[in-house]
UniProtKB/TrEMBL annotation, chain A:
The keyword Phosphoprotein does not apply. Belongs to the RRP4 family. The lineage of its organism: Eukaryota, Fungi, Dikarya, Ascomycota, Pezizomycotina. The keyword RNA-binding applies. This is Uncharacterized protein. One of its GO terms (cellular component) is cytoplasmic exosome (RNase complex). It comes from Ophiobolus disseminans. Coiled coil: none annotated.
UniProtKB/TrEMBL annotation, chain B:
This is Ribosomal RNA-processing protein 42. Residues 288-302 have a biased composition (Polar residues). GO terms for cellular component: cytoplasmic exosome (RNase complex); nuclear exosome (RNase complex); nucleolus. Belongs to the RNase PH family. GO terms for molecular function: mRNA 3'-UTR AU-rich region binding. Residues 74-107, 278-302 are annotated as: Disordered. Keywords: Cytoplasm, Exosome. Gene3D superfamilies: GHMP Kinase, N-terminal domain. It comes from Ophiobolus disseminans. Signal peptide: none annotated. Residues 91-100 have a biased composition (Acidic residues). SUPFAM superfamilies: Ribosomal protein S5 domain 2-like (SSF54211). The keyword Iron does not apply. Pfam families: RNase_PH.
C-alpha cells in the first residue's frame, strides 16, 4: 500500500489509559466520581458552593466563592478538593528529574537547553564534567572552547539540579550516566506534561528511565526523559573492564568519547531495531498509551513476533495489521489484551 | 531553485549521521520502519467541506499536518483587446465550431494564494509554493481554456490554499494533493446563454458541470496535476519524505504529473523543480580527531580544517551533502514517477478513489 488515503474519522476515541496501579500519589483516584470524564474549559464556572476547596487548575476571584477553571481538562474531586487536570500541558521541572534536552543556544558560561518546559533550562559550564577528570579546574580556555562540549542542536541527558523562582530549571551532567547523546534516534511525546499527568500517557517518574532492551541484533539503550523526550541508541559497552581503572580515575576512561559528536560503527541490523523502537514509541503516542519500560518491551516483542509471522506467511495479506506505526501498535496491543484475557 | 523552509533543522550532527546512514542502507530504513521507500504517509481526506465554495477539500496527514483548499469561481469581463488588423487574421473562423475555446485561456484567470501559519503572505515560502502549484496547474493549458465563456466573459478561478498546521515537513506535496482533490470536485454552474450573449446560468446546482469532466466512455480526460516529492540519499530514492528525512537529503525533486491523455496507465510530467534541501545548511559534525574535548587536536586554521575534513574516511561523522542531483538519478526518479503503475498513477488513482467512494 504505497498510498493510503482514508476517509476522515470521528474525533479520537478517549485514551485507553492503564488503570492507575502505580505510584502512591494517586491513591485518591478511587474516589473519583463519573463526572471526571466531562471536560471543563478555561473560565468555566465549576461551582459556587462554598463547601468546595480550590485545587490545581482552578481559581477563585477575590470576594467571591465561585470556583473557575483555568485550564481545559478533566475535573477531579478529592474529598472536598476540586482540581482540574489539563489535557495537554508542558513539562513542569522538578529537582532530581532525569531529562533529555536539546541545546538551543550557547552563551558565555552556560547553555540554554530545551527540555519541553515553559521556559528554557540553563546548563552552566560549571555543572558539567570536563574531560580529563573530575578534579580539573574550570579555566578561561574552557569558556572559550564552550562549543567543543555542546553546541546548538546537540542532545544531552541531564538531571534537574535546582529550580529558580520563575520555575526555570538548572541542569547538571555531573555523573557518568549523563552527557551528550549519540549513536541513535530522538523521539518525543509532546504535550504529555509530567508529574501528575504522567498517568495519562507520557513518561512516569519514579520508574526506571534508562534501560537496555535486548533485541535479536544486539542491545539497545533507551532513555526516557521525564519531560517526554526519548532517546534510543546503540548500547555501548565500556571499553575497558572496570578493574583496569580505579574508582577515582573513572572519569578519564570515559572522557575520550564524552563529548564526541561522531557516531560509532553501527550494524545495519541494530540500526533497524533502533528505528523500530522509535517507530513503536510514536505509535504508542498516537494510540494515547503510557510509555514506560514495561510497555515498550512488551510492544517491541509483539511487533517482532508480528513481523516474523508476516514473513512466514509470505506476504502482506497473511497478517491483518493496520497502516503505519499506529496500526502495528494497535494490533500488538489488541493481541496483548487477548492474551491477558485468555 | 526553490528555497527551503525558513525553519532550520535542529538536529545534532550525531542524529543526522545516524539518519543518513540508515537511509543509505539497501533497502533504506525509513524513520517509520513500516514504510518502504515508495510508501506515502497515510492520510485522511474529505471533499466538499466548504459550503460556499465551488469545490473544496481537506487532507490531514498522520503527523498532524493538515491542509484546506477552497476553489471559488467568478464571472469576469474579459478586457476587449483592440483588434488592429480587423478581421484579417480570422480566416479560420469556420473551424471554431470544433472547440471555440482552444487557446483562448489566459494564465491570469487562475489566481492562487497559499497561506502557511508563521509566514507572512510575501515570505518566500508561501510565494514559491503558490507559484509552483500555479505553474503546474497552468502547464497543460487545458484548464485555462475551460474557463473561457465567450469573447467578453470568462471564469476567474480563485484557489485558496490554507495550511492549518505549522509546516512540519515541506508542505508542497500535501498542498498539491489537496488542490488536486478540490479541483477534481469543483463544479461550475451550467451555461444557458449562447455564444457572445451576456452569460446566463442554470440556477439548478444539480445541472452544474464539473471543471474537470469525468471520464466519459473510453476517452480519458485530463486531471489536475499532482506534485510528488522525491529525495535522494546516496543511491536510494525515497518518496514523500518526512521532516527528519528531508534534513539529510542529498537532493530533493518536486515532480508535477498529470495523467496521460492517450492511455489510462502511466502519467506525464508537466513540470519539475529541484528544491534546496535543508541539509545544505546544517553544520558539519566534528570528528573525534579534530575535537579537543575528545583527545584530538583542533585544527589551527580553517584551511587546515578543510583539508583534514577532506581526508576524513570515517563514516560516523555528519558531512552536509554538496552539489546537486546527478543526471541518472533524475532520470531514475522521473521513470519511477511516470511509468505505468508508477508513483504518479498510484497517487492520482488513490485521490480519484476518494471522490468515487
Amino acid at each position: 500500500m504505497p498510498v493510503s488515503i482514508l476517509p476522515p474519522t470521528a474525533p479520537l476515541p478517549p485514551r485507553r489509559d492503564a488503570t492507575s496501579d502505580d505510584s502512591d500519589v494517586d491513591m485518591s483516584d478511587d474516589e473519583l466520581t463519573p463526572q471526571t470524564k466531562s471536560i471543563v474549559t478555561p473560565g468555566e464556572h465549576i461551582t459556587s458552593d462554598p463547601q468546595w476547596m480550590r485545587g490545581h487548575g482552578t481559581y477563585v476571584p477575590s470576594g467571591e466563592t465561585t470556583i473557575i477553571s483555568t485550564v481545559a481538562g478533566h475535573m477531579h474531586k478529592t474529598n472536598k478538593l476540586l482540581s482540574v487536570q489539563p489535557l495537554r500541558a508542558r513539562y513542569q521541572p522538578e529537582i532530581g528529574d532525569l531529562v533529555v534536552g536539546r541545546i538551543v543556544s550557547v552563551q558565555a558560561k552556560k547553555w540554554s537547553v530545551d527540555i519541553a518546559a515553559p521556559m528554557l533550562a540553563n546548563l552552566p559550564l560549571s555543572s558539567i564534567n570536563l574531560p580529563g577528570g573530575i578534579l580539573r579546574r574550570r579555566t578561561a580556555v574552557d569558556e572559550l572552547n564552550i562549543r567543543t562540549f555542546f553546541s546548538e542542536g546537540d542532545l544531552l541527558v541531564a538531571e534537574v539540579q535546582s529550580l529558580h523562582q520563575d520555575n526555570t530549571a538548572s541542569l547538571h551532567t555531573r555523573s557518568l550516566k549523563y552527557g551528550k547523546l549519540r549513536n541513535g534516534l530522538f523521539a518525543s511525546l509532546s504535550g504529555a506534561g509530567g508529574g501528575i499527568l504522567s498517568r495519562r500517557g507520557g513518561v512516569v517518574r519514579s520508574r526506571r528511565q534508562v534501560f537496555t532492551l535486548n533485541t535479536a541484533a544486539g542491545e539497545i539503550d533507551v532513555v526516557l526523559g521525564v519531560n517526554g523526550y526519548i532517546f534510543i541508541s546503540k548500547h555501548i559497552k565500556p571499553a575497558q573492564s572496570a578493574t583496569d581503572i580505579s574508582i577515582t580515575r573513572l572519569e578519564e576512561g570515559v572522557s575520550e568519547t564524552l563529548y564526541s559528536s561522531q557516531n560509532d560503527e553501527i550494524e545495519p541490523a541494530v540500526m533497524r531495531e533502533i528505528t523500530r523502537v522509535s517507530t513503536l514509541i510514536k505509535g504508542l503516542v498516537a494510540c494515547g498509551m503510557r510509555v514506560d519500560e514495561d510497555m515498550i518491551v512488551r510492544v517491541y516483542d509483539g511487533a517482532v513476533e508480528l513481523e516474523a509471522e508476516e514473513r512466514s506467511m509470505g506476504g502482506a495479506n497473511g497478517v491483518d495489521k493496520g497502516i503505519g506505526a499506529k496500526g502495528v501498535v494497535e494490533t500488538v496491543l489488541g493481541r496483548l489484551e487477548v492474551e491477558a484475557g485468555g | 531553485m526553490a528555497p527551503q523552509q525558513a525553519a532550520l533543522v535542529n538536529l545534532s550532527p550525531a542524529e543526522l549521521s545516524f539518519l543518513r546512514s540508515s537511509l543509505a542502507q539497501t533497502p533504506p530504513i525509513r524513520l517509520d520502519v513500516t514504510k518502504g521507500p515508495r510508501d506515502f504517509r497515510s492520510m485522511r481526506a474529505e471533499y466538499d467541506v466548504l459550503p460556499g465554495a465551488n469545490g473544496s477539500a481537506r487532507i490531514a496527514l498522520e503527523d498532524g499536518t493538515e491542509a484546506l483548499v477552497g476553489v471559488k469561481a467568478e464571472v469576469e469581463r474579459s478586457p476587449q483587446r483592440p483588434s488592429l488588423g480587423a478581421h484579417g487574421e480570422d480566416v479560420d473562423m469556420g473551424d471554431e465550431d470544433v472547440d471555440e475555446s482552444t487557446g483562448k485561456g489566459q494564465n491570469g484567470w487562475v489566481e492562487m494564494s497559499v497561506e502557511v501559519p508563521g509566514f507572512r503572505e510575501d515570505d518566500s515560502l508561501p510565494v514559491f509554493l503558490a507559484s509552483m502549484l500555479k505553474e503546474s496547474l497552468l502547464a497543460s493549458g487545458e484548464l485555462k481554456d475551460r474557463l473561457y465563456i465567450n469573447a467578453r466573459f470568462h471564469w476567474k478561478l480563485y484557489v485558496d490554499v490554507l495550511l492549518l498546521s505549522p509546516a512540519l515537513s515541506y508542505p508542497l506535496a500535501l498542498l498539491s494533493m489537496t488542490t488536486h482533490l478540490a479541483l477534481l470536485t469543483t463544479d461550475l454552474p451550467a451555461l444557458k446563454s449562447e455564444k457572445d450573449e451576456d452569460p446566463l446560468f442554470d440556477d439548478d446546482w444539480d445541472a452544474a458541470v464539473p471543471l474537470y469532466p469525468k471520464t466519459a466512455g473510453k476517452t480519458t480526460t485530463d486531471k489536475p496535476p499532482v506534485i510528488i516529492l522525491a529525495m535522494a540519499v546516496g543511491p536510494n530514492i525515497i518518496f514523500d519524505p518526512c521532516k527528519e528525512e528531508l534534513a539529510v537529503a542529498d537532493a530533493v525533486l518536486a515532480v508535477a504529473c498529470t495523467n496521460t491523455s492517450s492511455s489510462s496507465t502511466g502519467a506525464r510530467i508537466v513540470s519539475i523543480r529541484t528544491i534546496d534541501p535543508p541539509s545544505h545548511l546544517t553544520p558539519p559534525g566534528i570528528p573525534n580527531s579534530m575535537n579537543s574535548a575528545t583527545g584530538g587536536t583542533a585544527p589551527t586554521s580553517s584551511a587546515d580544517a578543510l583539508t583534514q575534513r577532506e581526508l576524513l574516511a570515517s563514516s560516523g561523522v555528519w558531512t552536509p551533502p554538496r552539489g546537486g542531483m546527478k543526471r541518472n538519478l533524475i532520470s531514475q526518479v522521473t521513470k519511477m514517477v511516470v511509468e505505468s503503475g508508477g508513483i504518479a498513477e498510484e497517487v492520482i488513482s488513490a485521490l480519484a478513489a476518494i471522490e468515487v467512494g
